[in-house]
Amino acid sequence: MMSGPDLRLSDMAVSRFLIVNADDFGLNRGVNQGIIEAHEHGIVTSASLMVRWPAAGETVSFCREHPGLSLGLHIDLGEWIYCDGDWVPLYEVVPLDDMVALAAEVSRQLDIFRNLVGRDPTHIDSHQNVHLREPVRSVLIEVARELAVPVRYCNPEIHYCGKFYGQTGEGSPLPDFISVDGLIKILAILSPGITELGCHPGKGTDFVSTYRDERAQELTVLCDQRVRIAITNIGIELCSFGDVATRRM
After folding, report:
1. CA-CA distance, 127 to 27, in Å (whole number)?
2. Is 115 domain-assigned?
3. Is residue 72 part of a domain?
């Protein structure tokens, strides 16, 4: 089991700590299996759980048996794809401009998380990062403030890196970005302090997704020993959101 580093404030100016967080835990069995494998045999230290999907329940026993995997809440308010020059919704849970509806839905998903996992999330983020816009951002920041946990992109002490992703914003393939060499290049230029690296591992072909084959490629790279060797050689220490919460905050 991976043990977290001792995160001392005096170390932060010179040391580089890396949280490798896998999004979409609970989306389907293939994604669940990929994240589990990337934690057990790769460098994933944390995951963000989508509680609205049927496969969310099957993640719970694994997380209880593997407390080293920090588990956050991946707020799911909808999904959009780029089609014919415009963003088209595949589904929308609540209107993104309705603050009352947003607050109620976020509270509902937090309650489901607590009922499934038996504790609060160690961090909060959102599917397709919809919380970067208002009023979603304010809703999530308020919930996170009450829980004393970080929100992706909204905590000055934790940088977020989303460069390990195999598509452009419009869905064009970027295979080099999720190669071993591509990931090592990302790691080599990490800033001092704590960085969250987002990832989306998965395996199998039993699900429909605009980001399916890339998940399998990510999984292979995240478990590649060359990446772990590079982390050691560069002087990066792997940690989780749980380490950050218990040892620094």
Report:
1. 11
2. yes
3. yes
| DSSP label of 191 | P
Q: Is the pTM of this model over 0.85?
A: yes
Within 71-222, residue ranges assigned H as helices are: 99-117, 136-147, 180-188, 213-222
Structural domain contains residue 1: no
Q: Is the peptide bond before 135 cis (omega within 30 degrees of 0)?
A: yes
47-60-55 Cα angle (round to 5) = 80
What's the rounded Cα separation, in Å, for the pair 90 and 74? 18
pLDDT tens profile 151-179: 999 999 999 999 999 999 888 899 999 99
- If one compares 25 and 247, the residue with the highest pLDDT of the two is 25
In a domain, 224, yes or no: yes
The pLDDT tens digits for 94-121 are: 999 999 999 999 999 999 999 999 999 9
Question: And the tokens for 164?
Answer: 């390990």
Q: To which residue do tokens 């496969």 refer?
A: 55
Q: What is the CATH number of the domain that holds 148?
A: 3.20.20.370
Q: How far apart are CA 209 and CA 215, in angstroms?
A: 10
Report the alpha-carbon distance of residue 93 to residue 96 in Å, rounded: 9
Bridge partner residues of 151 (DSSP): 124
Burial of residue 26, with CB atoms counted within 10 A of its CB: 0-12 exposed, 13-18 middle, 19 or more buried: buried
Instruction: Report how many domains make up the chain.
Output: 1
Q: Which domain holds residue 172?
A: 9-247
